[in-house]
Write a sequence for this structure.
């Protein structure tokens, strides 16, 4: 029997993927918030779920630790631009389905009293703190804006408040976190939703097991858009 390993991250990706899995007849048999296990069985003996950090999903899938995974477009593109990415040779991962879940956007935000437009116009060097150094580098290079990037792993909102940076590049959904920290969104970089990512080798070798899963996801997505 061909084993299928699906990489998910805890939290919104896991929660929002469950209904799609259910539509494909797959029930995860343990709750990641209640167990310390990192490998979760499902009701399908040939399908298991591995729990990894959101930003590790593309790495697991690319190198075969998982056959498929669900990851935000932010994480997928940051991975493709990074050291493990496909570079000129093309993508290291297949990305066959936009699952439309975990929607948000990647944006530039600053303190309300920082004149971002003026800084850009004057060709000033801007200090930008972000977890997304590759996407940020590409965005500002495309705009011809000079930036010094500072890599952070969390609490990005703090950077402009403490003088660590002039701006941040971070995910925004409702904007309430920015607002609570007196920050304003000054530029949209990328609309984000979670995608199914597939190991290219598994796509060929496990096609017979993967195809029905992808078909079920597509049917569930079509049904939910029809009802929306
Ligand atoms: P982590 O904090 O470990 O990165 P999250 O659950 O916060 O995990 O984020 C996982 C993915 O969910 C992100 O890569 C992004 O695609 C998406 N996401 C993050 N924040 C939001 C948000 N506020 N609203 C909707 N989707 C989000
Ligand atoms: Mg988070």
């Amino acid at each position: 029997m061909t084993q299928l390993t699906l990489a998910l991250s805890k939290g919104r990706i896991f929660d929002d993927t469950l209904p799609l899995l259910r539509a494909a007849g797959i029930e995860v048999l343990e709750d990641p918030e209640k167990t310390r296990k990192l490998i979760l069985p499902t009701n399908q003996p040939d399908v298991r779920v591995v729990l990894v950090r959101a930003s590790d999903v593309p790495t697991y899938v690319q190198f075969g630790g998982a056959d498929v995974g669900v990851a935000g477009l932010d994480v997928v593109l940051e991975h493709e631009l990074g050291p493990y990415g496909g570079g000129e040779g093309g993508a290291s991962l297949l990305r066959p389905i936009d699952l439309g879940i975990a929607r948000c956007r990647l944006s530039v935000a600053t303190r309300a009293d920082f004149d971002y437009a003026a800084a850009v116009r004057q060709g000033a060097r801007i200090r930008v703190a972000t977890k997304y150094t590759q996407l940020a580098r590409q965005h500002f290079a495309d705009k011809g804006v000079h930036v010094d990037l500072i890599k952070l792993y969390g609490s990005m909102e703090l950077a402009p408040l403490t003088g660590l940076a002039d701006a941040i590049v971070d995910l925004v959904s409702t904007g309430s976190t920015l607002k609570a920290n007196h920050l304003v969104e000054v530029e949209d970089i990328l609309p984000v939703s979670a995608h199914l990512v597939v190991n290219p080798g598994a796509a060929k070798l496990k096609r017979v097991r993967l195809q029905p899963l992808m078909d079920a996801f597509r049917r569930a997505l079509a049904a939910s858009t029809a009802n929306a």
In short: The first helix runs from residue 12 to 23. The chain has a mean pLDDT of 96. The chain has two domains: 4-103+193-227, 104-191.
